[in-house]
Design the sequence.
């Protein structure tokens, strides 16, 4: 099903050309910005009027406060305005607010039926922000359809007494990711960003689904693949090192491979160095603003995070840089300013020239 004979999209060529010239900038943390708006349950549900772009209504008996992805339907302007802020701060690539917009993740909120609308509206809103930014400063922005790991893992048992048990199968994930990616492409995403990967098997299902979606539309979009390292030994939750992770996803010929979230830029550096040493494609890093404090907030200032990300650039490790949890438009502005002085990492060889 992974078919490289499909023509690549126009945005793919444009992104590859831009990434050869300079370090591209990815945006920051949507969740962090949404938190500052202090929205209530009524805000999250638009007083119960949840509907999609086609005016299809959705109903759930579950509380929705904290279901950030739902805001693309109920508070679309707020989400779009945050994306515009990130774009004007220097982001070339804007993420859709769809990290949890799969039937698997939305089951927690009883909104499985809304996933198509969430992804279409999520991509449309990010596209509007991209166009508004371009109208202001003339720079092209790209919309990255954000695909999260879901809250289930295909290769680890959640039950310590039953190590063979799996809460989700490869095919469950493939189908759920396929629905999501179809919606993201329909809404106008330029690329697919499979991020915060803690289980490579989940990511492989997302990759497989992306190629199934590409076959439906007859063109291949760039894929960005980003793992997360959650422990000090430098392994992902499913036990892989950065080198093993690269060899597990290399068959997808991704536009970028990289790391995001987790322990912050300082702790990410050795793992990023390892990944950049083996990957024969562009490399992307978007760390958190340090480690969370006792209240779950992030204390690194824009200048602190940007100084650490600049080290990645200085050492020739990155082609795309941005921020994950705790990073605001000020963090992205500082990162963009600091990495602009450095050339992008040199490719070993282009996986998809
Ligand atoms: Zn994060």
Sequence:
């Amino acid at each position: 099903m992974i078919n490289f004979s499909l023509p690549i999209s126009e945005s793919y060529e444009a992104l590859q050309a831009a990434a050869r010239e300079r370090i591209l900038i990815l945006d920051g943390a949507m969740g962090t910005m949404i938190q500052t708006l202090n929205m209530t349950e009524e805000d999250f549900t638009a007083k119960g009027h949840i509907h999609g772009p086609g005016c299809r209504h959705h109903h759930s008996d579950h509380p929705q406060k904290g279901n950030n992805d739902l805001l693309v339907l109920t508070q679309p302007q707020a989400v779009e305005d945050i994306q515009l802020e990130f774009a004007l701060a220097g982001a070339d690539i804007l993420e859709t607010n769809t990290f949890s917009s799969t039937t698997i993740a939305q089951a927690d909120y009883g909104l499985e039926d809304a996933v198509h609308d969430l992804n279409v509206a999520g991509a449309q809103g990010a596209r509007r922000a991209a166009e508004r930014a371009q109208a202001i400063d003339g720079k092209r922005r790209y919309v990255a359809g954000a695909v999260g790991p879901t809250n289930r893992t295909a290769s680890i048992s959640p039950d310590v007494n039953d190590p063979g048990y799996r809460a989700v199968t490869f095919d469950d994930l493939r189908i759920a990711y396929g629905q999501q990616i179809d919606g993201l492409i329909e809404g106008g995403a330029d690329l697919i960003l499979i991020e915060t990967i803690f289980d490579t098997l989940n990511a492989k299902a997302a990759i497989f689904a992306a190629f199934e979606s590409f076959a439906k539309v007859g063109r291949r979009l760039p894929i960005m693949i980003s793992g997360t390292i959650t422990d000090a030994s430098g392994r992902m939750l499913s036990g892989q090192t950065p080198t093993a992770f690269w060899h597990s996803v290399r068959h997808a010929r991704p536009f970028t491979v990289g790391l995001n979230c987790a322990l912050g830029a300082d702790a990410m550096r050795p793992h990023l160095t390892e990944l950049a040493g083996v990957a024969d494609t562009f490399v992307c890093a978007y760390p958190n603003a340090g480690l969370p404090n006792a209240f779950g907030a992030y204390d690194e200032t824009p200048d602190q995070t940007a100084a650490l990300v600049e080290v990645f650039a200085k050492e020739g490790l990155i082609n795309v840089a941005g921020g994950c949890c705790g990073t605001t438009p000020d963090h992205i502005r500082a990162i963009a300013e600091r990495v602009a002085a450095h050339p992008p990492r040199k490719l070993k060889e282009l996986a998809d020239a």
About this structure: Strands lie at 24-25, 50-51, 57-58, 93-95, 142-147, 191-197, 223-227, 256-261, 282-287, 320-321.
